[in-house]
Amino acid sequence: MKMLEERKEEMIKIRRFLHENPELSFKEEKTAQYIIDFYKGKDVEVKTEVGNGQGIIVTIKGGKPGKTIGLRADFDALPIVEETDLPFKSKNEGVMHACGHDAHTAYLLVLADCLIQLKESLSGTIKIIHQHAEEVPPGGAKSIVESGELNDLDNIFGIHVLPMGPAGQVGYRGGYVMAGRSFFKLGIQGTGGHGSSPHLANDAVVAGAHFVTAVQTVISRRLNPFDMGVITIGSFDGKGTFNVIRDRVELEGDIRYMTVETQKLIDEEVHRVASGIEVEFGVKCELTYTADYPPLYNDPEVTEMVKASLESMNEPEIKEVKEYPMMSSSEDFSYYAEKIPGFFFYIGCTPKGVEKPYFNHHPKFDIDEDALLVAAKSVAQVVCSYYEID
Questions:
Q1: Separation of alpha carbons 313 and 319, rounded Å
Q2: Facing residues of 251 across strands?
Q3: 288, 325 in Cβ contact below 8 A?
Q4: Which end of the chain is flanked by fewer CB atoms within 10 Å, N or C?
Q5: How far apart (Å, rounded) are the C-alpha atoms in residues 373 and 386?
Q6: Span 26-56, pLDDT tens digits
Q7: Which pLDDT score is estimated for 390?
Q8: Hey, CA dihedral for 193, 194, 200, 202, is it positive or negative?
Q9: Residues designated catalytic
Q10: How many angstroms separate the CA atoms of 340 and 226, rounded?
Q11: Mean pLDDT on 213-240
Q12: Is the Cα torsion angle 70, 108, 305, 256 positive or negative in sign?
């Protein structure tokens, strides 16, 4: 903890450099090289280009044998034009660290370096997972899991900065904590014609409009009222001329759910509605349906262990350990947690003096940089309690 305190300014410096130089998912070559350069000359094994992109795994082998855990941070940015007045705002127009991945990488780099220096006191192995492409499906986590490089992990841990509380607040939840996400694209092919002769055409717009209404009954009439599910039609491409009947429209939608069972039910019902539209309107439906990220599940036993550990901390930066509600946003950490008992928790980061902070993915998103040390100390506490280090 003392080492981390002494390197707080270094965390901030790294975070600001990364914030100033963001890169999009699957294009993070310079960011990956920055991370690789950080570990040069250190007594660790570094594997690069893990998975389907720029994934990096750094293995810290302890002085004695024992369990193996993973600590993960993501490092990609978003296609957003930054609207903050920060002196270190993005230099890459149209690209911004609007989700806090710059903070995740900064704290974990410094924490990893401290653990490297203290590794002889570890009874086990720690794998530092610097993950690319969290923001864009299929994401980086799934491919890193499939690489087999994490097959030896006993548990895995990760954090996310969230402006749901001030720096010093640590949020947790057991069981299902974040929603899964699916994407669909529906092409409806009818027969074009003139507005004066609808009987000679087969209007794809009308069929599409019916689909928009009908698919909402999946949530209202097929889903258990106690389960969470959302279907959003975010795009309806049917633009044409006012007196011409469109022969084709294309729709795109976003689906959220909190359990695997709900995911399967919504999948089946959306396909059923599309098939019904074909029969009812005599059109052809081409449905592409992709399950992007599964729901994120925190292992209850690991959750209780970490919760107790965090609550026992006697560090001035950790002011509150609070249970957070379930969230309908998604996170590809869920791919790790599907295979490895894990725990993903939250670090409050509301900027000082701000009552209504901009949330993640907003062009004016910012954090209280005190959250970096909170993140580092919280994860360090998890490591120390896991390996029973005083």
A1: 9
A2: 186, 236
A3: no
A4: C
A5: 20
A6: 999 999 999 999 999 999 999 999 999 999 9
A7: 64
A8: positive
A9: 76, 134
A10: 28
A11: 97
A12: negative
Structure confidence by residue, pLDDT tens digits, 294-333: 999 999 999 999 999 999 999 999 999 999 999 999 999 9
pLDDT band at 389 (very low <50, low <70, confident <90, very high): confident
DSSP state of 158: E
Candidates 374, 321, 308, 310; CA nearest to 4 is 374
pLDDT computed for residue 216 by the predictor: 97
pLDDT value, residue 221 = 97
Dist. CA 343–CA 157, nearest whole Å: 5
Per the CB < 8 A criterion, the answer to whether 58 and 144 are in contact is no
SS3 for 56?
A: strand
Extract the tokens encoding 247. 């022969």
Burial 66-93 (b: 16+ CB within 10 A, else e): eebbbbbbbbbbbebebebeeebebeee
Q: Strand, helix or coil at 155?
A: strand
Question: Backbone dihedral region of 30: left (phi > 0), alpha (psi from -120 to 50 degrees) or beta?
Answer: alpha
- CA dist 315 and 377 (Å) reads 8
